[in-house]
Amino acid sequence: MTIGIVVFPGSNCDRDVRWALEGCVGLPTRFLWHEERDLSGLDAVVIPGGFSYGDYLRCGAIARFAPVLESVRLFAEAGGAVLGICNGFQVLTEMGLLPGALTRNARLHFLCEPTPLSVNPGNCRWLKGYSEAEAIVLPIAHGEGRYQCESEQLAELEANGQVVLRYACNPNGSVGDVAGLTNTGGNVLGLMPHPERACDPLTGGLDGLRLLASLSN
Ligand SMILES: NC(=O)CC[C@H](N)C(=O)O
User: Fold this and answer.
1) Whole-prediction pTM value?
2) Does the keyword Protein biosynthesis apply (predicted)?
């Protein structure tokens, strides 16, 4: 099994994700530069955190036009496992693979702190290792993490079980305490917290490990 990790100019968590997947989980990875289109041989794709194209316009708004994402869209639409972390979640909403939008945090500050969350794994392929309503802690590090969508859309997401991660103490003003969403197929997951920074007790706990290890079980 090999996991692709997308790299845009401005990505900065691509190495963290590689360290977690290879060093902590033991899964081989391959970097996918933003101009590449070839996903052959890959079993899953991670769009990591960072500041793609300098976060100009809106986080993820330029990245959505990257050639690599045309292939990622086809991969996801065919049922392939895709994980978007932080800037990756922003990219997934900008490209329409997940509904809604991530906007500036309610108090306009960049937030960087451990954050308590509640997991509702439903049919999400990336969350098989967690139990229903499990309480976990993952770090956040973002300026644009305030999830927004229409109330009808939120009701639909809730009814479908697509709100798979919720903030216990909503730090950024997200509607419905949304910290992470899956698509109806459960193969695409976008989340603002960073599971790759919680894969070692020395550097942020272990609550992210099962997420990154989920595909290998
Ligand atoms: N850690 C990240 O991926 C940061 C995401 C994005 N650049 C923001 O500040 O919201």
Assistant:
1) 0.97
2) no
Domain residue extents for the chain: 3-216
Tens of pLDDT along 35-72? Answer: 999 999 999 999 999 999 999 999 999 999 999 999 99
Spacing, Cα 113 to ligand 1 middle (Å): 13
Evaluate: CB of 59 within 6 angstroms of ligand 1.
Answer: yes
Instruction: Domain 3-216: give its CATH code.
Output: 3.40.50.880
DSSP string, 169-205: S-SS--GGGEEEEE-TTS-EEEESS-GGGSSBGGGTB
Asked whether residue 80 carries a pLDDT value surpassing 90, the answer given is: yes
pLDDT for res 78 = 97
> Within 10 Å of residue 110's Cβ, how many Cβ atoms?
12
- For the record, the structure tokens of 38 come out as 């070839």
- pLDDT band (50, 70, 90) for residue 168: very high
C-alpha distances out from residue 28 to 1, 3, 31, 43, Å: 7, 6, 10, 10
Q: Which of 195, 88, 180 is nearest to 139 (CA)?
A: 195
Alpha-carbon distance values, 169 to 118, 176, 212 (Å):
10, 11, 24
